[in-house]
Specification:
By secondary structure, this protein is of the alpha+beta class. Among the domains are: about 455-550, Immunoglobulin-like (Sandwich), CATH 2.60.40; about 560-680, Immunoglobulins (Immunoglobulin-like, Sandwich), CATH 2.60.40. Strands 15, 16, 18, 20, 21 and 22 form a six-stranded antiparallel β-sheet that branches. Strands 3, 4, 7, 8 and 9 form a five-stranded antiparallel β-sheet that branches. α11 runs parallel beside α21 (about 405-410). The longest helix has 29 residues, at about 70-95. It starts with 8 loop residues before the first helix and ends with a strand.
């Protein structure tokens, strides 16, 4: 029973708190499925099951005075399976809602698998056709500084070989995403199994985090290496004592993990150093060397086995492929240190500093880890997260995707023992080197953030799509502050990410030194059109050296309009006059008392056959005239009186908006109010 003497009251409270959260998560999964029951009514069965089990879980763990261990084990396993069932059902609805692949990486991997399934080498083929084949949005491409997308396969071979057997079995549609979903559910259940029973709820909690489930469905392929990595790091500090099959499982699993993606690679030297230090403490230095050599041989053998056919077929193409993330000259992006340059324009004058900083931080962090071991032992598996924070490309997936293996490693390794580790013969040298690298890292970091962007950018005006409320055309003032000519390539930033690069319609390709010019930029496609409802920035990239320059955020006037009444729920007789009040409000829908501001009310008919002209009169103007202006009074209200003399099967849709008085673009659209005018008998 969980209330046996060895189980403290505090641990029982922890158990109840964690499983209470799991109960709420089960209810959350049920709620997320609710939005799709009108399309798939059978989901109601699972909503009932998940929601009921979640409530029952909360009731049981919060009220029962004690728990029989075998019963609670069964209950928690059922809860874990149901949570992952909820995730899989939700993921399925997301695929049905948006079947296009969300990232280039998952499209590349499935396309590479299709090429390999026909016994061809994907490293010698362009991955460009996968964009159209899997309907990847241009905003999901990885762009170089010159504005061209990366089209080379960028990962080791197991990243796509895992799909080949499924292709041979005939699975194609959404196959890579479905594999992602299945592997995530299995990784969460494996984590659940490996964690101590009192902490197993953490697997479900972490496995249900929206950022992680979103990445899984959205096409981030890191999930493919999670299961082998979890197996490799379970009780990793006990690896020197493993015997039998477990002695071989760790390097084999790690070999598979590093054969998927480069993310786990930085973990390896930290594991090797830790094993050496652990065995050195026990006076087994020779055993440590033998263990490290055996581990590297087996792990390297697995890595070579999965990649060998492609290495033999074309070694340079394979090497160029797996080195693409480093050599592609991709645009900087992410949530790490580089975000200061990407969004605030702090630094960015030479992106090479971020590459140097990444190397220095990695080596410096490794030396600090060694000289302070075991103080940083708990962070061993999360090493990539801390190192990649300083990279020029530091996406959130780098920081959170290691949550499951990190939890397994943390909870399965021994706590820091209160013993002295023997000083290494090079301890002083290592400490001095760590201090020197820390200083060098600080210096390079300062240079990265103080190197001035070469260009100053100012958005002069925009052109919009009107009711679509997107921006398609930007006039930009650019000045080159450097002593050499630069060739900028432009893109828009919205929602924390870059769009596809915009078309330069007007402006010099090469901007002379100490010279300014006006550029006209056109959105290349619908996906690149930034929403009019939010702010955006224009970014300019140059090569040799790589730089980024950012315009100040451009925000549309913060006012918008609310129509009152917001809905007319009854049929209106022809000839009846209806007053629509347009209230000027701010971003928080708080009324703005500003008089004399023109508000425009438009009308149209969205019929089954297409868009038609409205047949109403607005403020006594001609039939069908649209838009009609009215000016706000001292309360910030503009009045419109509408009526119609024609009976129609379709309602007339009214929408109000504001217009920028300088450049004439419309903004601040109200919600649409449909009014149906008919003969009433």
């Amino acid at each position: 029973m969980l209330n046996q003497p060895e189980v403290t009251a505090k641990s029982l409270e922890t158990f109840r708190g964690l499983w209470g959260v799991v109960g709420f998560l089960l209810i959350t999964w049920a709620f997320l499925l609710l939005a799709f029951t009108d399309l798939y009514a059978w989901l109601a069965y699972y909503e009932f099951l998940l929601g009921g089990w979640g409530l029952a879980t909360i009731a049981v763990v919060w009220t029962a005075p004690s728990f029989r261990r075998r019963y609670i084990t069964t209950w928690t396993w059922i809860s874990a399976v149901l949570a992952m069932l909820g995730f899989c059902l939700w993921a399925w609805t997301q695929i049905r809602l948006s079947p296009a692949y969300g990232t280039d990486e998952i499209a590349f991997n499935q396309y590479a698998a299709q090429i390999a399934s026909h016994w061809h080498n994907p490293y010698t083929h362009s991955m460009g056709p996968s964009f159209q084949l899997f309907h990847v949005s241009p905003n999901g491409y990885t762009f170089r500084l010159n504005g061209t997308p990366v089209e080379a396969l960028s990962y080791p071979a197991f990243s796509f070989l895992i799909y080949v057997p499924l292709l041979w079995l005939g699975f194609t549609s959404q196959m890579a995403v479905i594999v992602n979903i299945a592997l995530w559910a299995l990784a969460v259940l494996l984590t659940f199994y490996l964690l101590p029973k009192r902490l197993r709820a953490l697997a479900i909690i972490a496995g249900s985090l929206p950022i992680l489930t979103g990445f899984t469905v959205g096409g981030v392929t890191d999930v493919v290496f999670l299961i082998p990595l979890i197996m490799a790091v379970y009780q990793w500090d006990q690896y020197p004592n493993f015997t039998g099959w477990r002695k071989w499982m760790v390097p084999v699993a790690m070999g598979l993990a590093i054969s998927v993606k480069q993310t786990p690679w930085p973990i390896i030297p930290f594991l090797l150093a830790a094993w050496y230090l652990e065995l050195n403490r026990l006076g087994r230095k020779r055993d440590a060397i033998r263990l490290i050599i055996r581990f590297l041989v087996v792990m390297g053998g697995v890595f070579l086995l999965t990649n060998l056919p492609f290495i033999i077929a074309n070694p340079s193409a394979w090497l160029q492929g797996i080195a693409t993330p480093v050599t592609s000259n991709a645009v900087p992006a992410g949530q790490g240190l580089v975000a200061l340059a990407v969004f605030l324009g702090i630094g960015g004058g030479n992106l090479l500093y971020f590459s140097l900083l990444l190397v220095i931080v990695f080596v410096g962090f490794f030396l600090i880890y060694v000289v302070t071991y075991p103080r940083l032992k708990a962070l061993t598996i999360l090493t990539p997260s801390f190192v990649l924070f300083f990279s020029a490309r530091s996406f959130a997936s780098y920081f959170v995707v290691l949550a499951l293996p990190g939890l397994v490693a943390l909870c399965s390794t021994s706590s820091v023992p209160r013993v002295e580790y023997p000083r290494l013969s090079a301890q002083k040298v290592l400490k001095k080197s760590a201090a020197a690298l820390s200083g060098a890292g600080l210096l390079i970091g300062i240079l990265a953030l103080t190197s001035s962007p070469p260009l100053s950018l100012k958005i002069l005006s925009i052109r919009t799509t009107g009711q679509l409320a997107t921006i398609i055309d930007v006039n930009l003032k650019v000045f080159n502050h450097t002593d050499h000519a630069v060739s900028p390539h432009f893109t828009a930033q919205n929602g924390g990410a870059e769009t596809a690069f915009w078309i330069r319609a007007v402006g010099p390709q090469s901007l002379p030194p100490q010279t300014g010019a006006t550029y006209r930029l056109l959105a290349p496609n619908f996906f690149a059109q930034t929403p009019l409802t939010g702010g955006f920035q224009i970014a300019a990239f140059t090569e040799s050296p790589g730089t980024i320059s950012i315009s100040p955020p451009f925000t549309v006037n913060p006012y918008h309009v609310i129509l009152n009444p917001e809905a007319v729920n009854k049929i209106q007789p022809i000839g009846k006059y209806i007053t629509l009040t347009a209230q000027l409000v701010d971003a928080f829908d708080k009324p703005v008392h500003k008089s004399g501001l023109p508000v425009f009310l438009g009308q149209t008919i969205y019929s089954q056959a297409g868009q038609l002209f409205g047949q109403a009169t607005i403020n006594g103007k001609g039939v069908g005239m649209s838009p009609v202006a009215s000016y706000t009074n001292s309360d910030g209200r503009a009045l419109f009186v509408v009526s119609s003399r024609y009976s129609a099967a379709d309602p007339i849709y009214f929408e109000a908006n504001l217009v920028n008085h300088l450049t004439g673009y419309p903004y601040g659209y109200s919600d649409i109010v449909p009014i149906r005018f008919m003969n009433v008998r």
